[in-house]
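Appendix C reproduces, verbatim, an entry submitted by the partner laboratory led by Prof. M.T., so that reviewers can inspect both the input and the predicted structure.
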Amino acid sequence: MSFELSPQRQQLIDNFKVYNGMDVEPYQRTLEAIPQTIESVRARIGEIVIYPIKGMQGIYLEEALLTEKGLTTLDGCCRDRQAMLARIDPATGERVRFSGKDNEHIGKLQVEFDPNKEEIEITAPGTYITSVVFSAEELWPEHYDPVRIKLETAEIIQGVVVEDKRFDTIEAMLQVYGDKTGRSNTSGKIQLVIPHIDSPRYSDTSQGQDANYQTNFSDGAQLHITNQETLDWLNEGLKEVNGNDYRTLPMESFRPNIVLRDAPANIEDIAQKICFEQQEKIINLVRLTPRCKVPQRDLKTGQVVDGEPLPWLRTHRPRREKGQPTFGVNAHAEPASHAKVISAGDKIWFDGERRNY
């Protein structure tokens, strides 16, 4: 059953039409299929994932804490994007981020958290190289000797460098996976950067009265939320364009923190809030998540296969203000929800429709 579009949904479609070559109809049909009274829609939390080291594989959790900077394990020891790799740019001498956007093999590195030992372990599956271990305390935000790190957006952030022989091992892991550039590309040892305690980094969801939401080293927001039904819709669209034998993209390609289940496709684009039935917890859905080259990489090889899904997303979904393709939504937890637990399987409902995208 379809309904007439609400003013908020029509505004999203009108913004969609600004770009030439857009195929609006499939997306519009999904918005028409969402009940007019969005508060009547019930869904559930499917998966919860944190990525302690930016760009590496995530850790799936049954439960997590909502905090002022994103998700953590219940003990608070292991946090989302609490550290990232950096390197020295040989051309400029600047310290720059070194992540899955910059190296096709970083996403193969596996991260595990041992709550008993309070340790984070990095391994390279399928190689002979021994693991690298950090204590949770080592990755806690520090206040000494801040350095400047440049991100690809020209944003300059401050952090604290952790540097020792363990990073020779991480570099060796990348080389074994077939990294042809190796040390020449990193211009010396890879470094690990942790947040500087006195240098807050604000989420791109910090707008107007909500101007104080912070994040660690995530790209833009405390929380990245996706919807399994939206991914199914995307994969169906890719097969319509490329044939029924075309590969199926996994959700891991988009590196979400929270995956919604049993929700209508693309409802996350228009809903204003996620509310939990079991306890008073509210997550604000604020802006569509822009997508970089990382979803184009094959998870096993790290190679970009054919450029998808970015071309399909550019023509079948709304874009951000600079024309970036989108998938999922940037979000943050309301302050009253901090230190509250969310669980896989939690029943949720949606409250209101937003006007900003």
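The longest helix spans residues 228-242. Additional entries are available on request from the coordinating office.
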